[in-house]
Amino acid sequence: MSELLSMTGISKSFGANLVLDQVDFRVDKGQIHGLVGENGAGKSTLMNILGGVVQRDSGSILMEGQPVHFRTPAESLQAGIAFIHQELNLANDLFVYENLFLGRELKTKTGLTDINAMCAASQQLFDQMGVQLDPRRMTRDIDTSYKQIVEIARALLMQARLIIMDEPTTSLTHVEIDLVFNLMRTLAKQGVGFIFISHKLKEVLSICDRYSVLRDGRMVEHGQTAGAEVAGLARAMVGHEVRSDRLQTDSAIGAEVLSTRGLSRQGSYQDIDIQVRAGEVVGFTGLLGDGRSALFRSIFGVLPPDSGTILYKGQPVTIDSPERARKLRIGYVPSNRKENGIIKDLSILENGTLVTLPDYVQNGLIDQARQTADFDRQRGALSIKMGKPQDSILSLSGGNQQKVVLAKWLSVNPDLLIFDNPTQGVDVGAKEEIYDIIVALARRGVAIVLLTSEMPEIMRLCHRVYVMYHGRVAGMLHADETDEHRIMMLQTGGTD
């Protein structure tokens, strides 16, 4: 393979903080190269330098042997580099086709925007991807997984020579991931290079030809994925062995906290009978459209059910708002941290105390001393790595942002805590910390609901798991009978 990209001796500091230290990185034409590392290892900074977002302090960059220096993202894009960021960069108030062609609109001979041509080109691309999506749909009306597909389609429309994909499969199903990977392989055969950034190390080994590992701003390991193992990559990322043992708490399971009887919502879920007890970690899994997120958004008061009963601590309840759920001491850590978990314009402190903010108001003023003291306790308990409480929430890594989201719900001393994909977009080290927090909460008697598509999370954490299929409970498995085969059979409509 001939060289497409060469980054040599790249260094970058932000003030006194050395983020990248003499990093060398290379991608060949037609190569899918995995770039892995913990949050804060320097991956995003390295890619932002390549994408023209951040300027390097020293080092050189060559594209096909020619020196380049990108001062803006537009210059990087013009050179054939497409960047699919971890945070979705779509305009929710535009149609899908408008997002695909934003800034590159097709025109008629008279200079008018050619809507029909853009829709036709969009539909042709979706057909090639095997994706059923109407280009004329409003972007805000499509699921997060399809928003990610639109991001990928936009990069493909650019006919880029090098595509940077930052956590592109986080919200995708197994079927959609296979479609994306097949597209990547097809484009790689045509000479397109890929930089694939992911915390899903199995995916890195599955799709990538080579890998590079960043740790604390230094390139510590690189090589071919053939023959590499997940455990070895994880060890290189964190600098020590990563646990893979079962983590279920051995404490006694208490009384029933939550149950439902015949709970239904048209188009989302039907006839749901479930039970969760104090000190128990109960998993819910399935494929896209299985209804688990809608089910627990109903239990949290966001989506009203059409029929059925919710029982909380043995008593029928009506939960018609998140505020009602909060008063019942039910917490919810959402799956999409960027859109639903944090408020980007607020500080770390404000995000971490948002749920209990009314408790700090006296005579129309916020008791900031008590607010800060309460957050400091959560900060210490959760080992949140941060600067000042007044710093922006965006100054934190993904794992620490997730801990802040958790902190705001722990402040209500929940009896039931719902985690919707709690380790989405966080690294292996932060995952272990979040797992330890979940186990500690269960030992304290908190009833834990874990919505996840990650098999290792289910098998390591859950006492029981409900498997959903097309809005119904397809089966329930206890920890000692849980394995990937049984879960896959149930979530695809088979029988255990």
Structural overview:
The protein has 496 residues and is an alpha/beta fold. The chain has two domains: 3-238, P-loop containing nucleotide triphosphate hydrolases (Rossmann fold), CATH 3.40.50.300; 256-491, P-loop containing nucleotide triphosphate hydrolases (Rossmann fold, 3-Layer(aba) Sandwich). It has 17 helices and 22 strands. A six-stranded mixed β-sheet has the order 6-7-8-3-9-10, sandwiched between helices. β11 (256-265) and β12 form a beta hairpin. α13 crosses α14. It is globular. The protein starts with a strand and ends in a 5-residue tail after the last helix. The model has no long low-confidence stretch (mean pLDDT 87).
Quick structural overview:
By secondary structure, this protein is α/β, with parallel strands linked by helices.
User: Which blocks of ≥5 consecutive residues have pLDDT under 50?
Assistant: none
Radius of gyration: 24 Å
The residue-averaged pLDDT reads 87
Distance between the termini: 46 Å
Percent of residues in β-strands? 25-35%
Number of DSSP helical runs? 17
Inertia-based shape: globular
Key terms for this structure?
single chain, 496 residues, alpha/beta, Rossmann fold, six-stranded mixed beta sheet, 17 helices, 33% helix
Provide the fold topology.
Layout (H helix, E strand, L loop, with lengths): L2 E12 L2 E12 L3 E5 L6 H8 L7 E6 L2 E2 L5 H6 L2 E4 L11 H5 L14 H15 L14 H14 L4 E5 L7 H16 L3 E5 L3 H7 L2 E6 L2 E7 L5 H9 L17 E10 L3 E9 L3 E5 L6 H8 L7 E6 L2 E3 L4 H6 L2 E4 L3 H5 L6 H5 L8 E2 L2 E2 L1 H15 L15 H13 L5 E5 L7 H16 L3 E5 L3 H7 L2 E6 L2 E7 L5 H8 L5
Parallel strand pairs: 3-8, 3-9, 6-7, 7-8, 13-20, 13-21, 16-19, 19-20
Antiparallel strand pairs: 1-2, 1-4, 4-5, 9-10, 11-12, 11-14, 14-15, 17-18, 21-22
